[in-house]
Amino acid sequence: MGNWLRMFGRLLLGGVVMTGLSSAAAAWGNVRCAGRSLSEAYANPQALELARAAVKGDAARIRELVAQGADVNHQEEGAAPLLMWPICANNVDGFHALLEVGANPNLLTRGHGKGSGVGLDLKEDGSEVRTGFTTMTLAAATANSEFLKLALQYGGDPNFPTEISGALPAPPLFSAAYYGLLENVKILVAGGADINRQDRIEKTLTAASLAIAAQRRYDIAYWMLDNGFVNDLQVLGSFAESSFPNEKWQPWKEKLINALREKGVHFPATSRLKDAIKNRVIPDGDVEDLIMGRKDFADYPLRSH
């Protein structure tokens, strides 16, 4: 699992989960998005003014600029869509104002790199986007769910992108699951996201399995299981069994495994644990603890041959 998870993590947004910005980044002039500062956001002067108005939440200025001919869907090589800028600035008003004048939340970004934002002790820090992602992907990976709700309201596609040449796709549901954002997962599923979608390259990867692998969020996988997820439950059982939770998520791991059992999933589910049972001195009464992650099979001695 490690190789694909590292690859997917690099291609997904890097630590965009943010409930607020630092005092320095909160000043609109210090906002960065997709590797650029606001002053270098666009070569086009009207687009640059739109970005400045958006990060400040100046709806009147946005409407004025559009009336003068500014294009809210302006794109340049190496630059993010305008709609990403108010997310990087955590400014819902600016985001809403751009949507109201026709900004498209499904535009593929041509920029990449880190921006403003706080990773909240996740793997990465700073809001990072990659070429080919959309504003929907960024909104889904942001803790302030208002961005995602608005993007969906104004035509955001919960299942886009479907495929990107040369890279893993980053559908919004995968992005929300990767950062452990249950509320965003719920919003996306309610908005039509395919709960059973598989990654086109790593076929065992779904949003449910990714939530476990990336964040140990068994509660997200459990919610998905309870709301229509049926995609290869035996594989989901393997993900659940193979990861070790911290104390906070242990009850959810056990709840998920028991729910999967009720749906016919067999445990032990992983070849690693099955092999350990054959090759180590493990009392029968301890197998359940190993399945649930309460104990580690590495602590048991190898059988003598």
Helices and strands in order:
Elements: H1 2-11, H2 23-26, E1 32-33, E2 36-37, H3 45-56, H4 59-67, H5 84-88, H6 92-100, H7 135-140, H8 146-153, H9 172-178, H10 182-190, H11 207-215, H12 218-225, H13 233-242, H14 250-262, H15 271-279, H16 287-292
Antiparallel strand pairs: 1-2
Helix pairs in contact: 3-4, 3-6, 4-6, 6-8, 9-10, 9-11, 11-12, 11-13, 12-14, 13-14
Task: Give a brief description.
By secondary structure, the protein is mainly alpha-helical.
How would you describe the overall organization of this protein?
It is a single chain. The protein has 305 residues and is an all-alpha fold. It has a domain at 8-156: Ankyrin repeat-containing domain (Serine Threonine Protein Phosphatase 5, Tetratricopeptide repeat), CATH 1.25.40. The chain has helices spanning 2-11, 23-26, 45-56, 59-67, 84-88, 92-100, 135-140, 146-153, 172-178, 182-190, 207-215, 218-225, 233-242, 250-262, 271-279, 287-292; strands at 32-33, 36-37. It has a two-stranded antiparallel ribbon with strand order 1-2. The longest helix has 13 residues, at 250-262. The relative contact order is 0.10. Residues 13-26 and 118-126 have low confidence and may be disordered.
